[in-house]
From TrEMBL:
<dbReference type="GO" id="GO:0031122">
    <property type="term" value="P:cytoplasmic microtubule organization"/>
</dbReference>
<dbReference type="GO" id="GO:0035371">
    <property type="term" value="C:microtubule plus-end"/>
</dbReference>
<dbReference type="InterPro" id="IPR000938">
    <property type="entry name" value="CAP-Gly_domain"/>
</dbReference>
<keyword id="KW-0143">Chaperone</keyword>
<feature type="domain" description="CAP-Gly">
    <location>
        <begin position="68"/>
        <end position="110"/>
    </location>
</feature>
<comment type="similarity">
    <text>Belongs to the TBCB family.</text>
</comment>
<dbReference type="GO" id="GO:0005634">
    <property type="term" value="C:nucleus"/>
</dbReference>
<dbReference type="GO" id="GO:0051010">
    <property type="term" value="F:microtubule plus-end binding"/>
</dbReference>
<dbReference type="GO" id="GO:0005938">
    <property type="term" value="C:cell cortex"/>
</dbReference>
<protein>
    <submittedName>
        <fullName>Tubulin-folding cofactor B</fullName>
    </submittedName>
</protein>
<dbReference type="Pfam" id="PF01302">
    <property type="entry name" value="CAP_GLY"/>
</dbReference>
<dbReference type="GO" id="GO:0005829">
    <property type="term" value="C:cytosol"/>
</dbReference>
<dbReference type="InterPro" id="IPR036859">
    <property type="entry name" value="CAP-Gly_dom_sf"/>
</dbReference>
<keyword id="KW-0963">Cytoplasm</keyword>
Amino acid sequence: ETLKSFLKNNKLGKYNPEYLKQQEQETLEKEQQENIEKEQIDKMEIGQRCCIRLPNKPAQHGTVMYKGRLDDKSGYWVGVKYDEPYGKHNGTLNGKQYFETPPMYGSFVTPSAVEIGDFPVLDDEL
């Protein structure tokens, strides 16, 4: 008995109707999430002030510097220049420059983490 016939006979992997339904559901959910992200970034403008809220991290203020897709990553992303060096890079990801910012001030976040508003520039020297 071949592996293929074994999988078919036992309804395993791609030969399992429940597995196929689950794959279709995951694809549908991913498409819906991307549509939501697209709607969110369409409302954003480059240069707008924002507050970034990530799980288990304090909220950070910054400026929207990029919005759209990234090479090697699925979905839509927002490039942010933080007011303080809380980022991961300088706007470059995998050798491609998406926006310019000093080292450690840039980061890419999901659109759902971005709140657009009139957020003041944070200044520790007050």
